[in-house]
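[Q] Does anyone have a clean structure-token version of this?
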Amino acid sequence: MTSMLIRGGAAIVLAGLAVLAPTVAHADAGVHAGAGVQETRVFTGFAYENSPKEAKREAEKRARQNALISGFLNEQCVLLYANSSRLAPGYYAGDAAINCTR
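[A] Here you go.
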């Protein structure tokens, strides 16, 4: 009989903790949410030029222009990649992506 009461009491205590746990977790997230919220976006750019370097440079420039239009500063952006591929003799396509966080 005593063991049943102890088990019942333990079950009630655990149930009470389970009810309180989401409230505490939610309150903790609210405290840190204001300081740690950041907006992150990825921007891409494409270009067709006469050399691979020009194609990459123009593609990155266009990606950065898209970021500036959206309100990101140049210092808030990091280049993810810049690729170029040959389409024909003397004609290259370039694409680039940047990741911006504020």
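[Q] Thanks! Anything notable?
[A] The helical segments are 2-36, 52-69.
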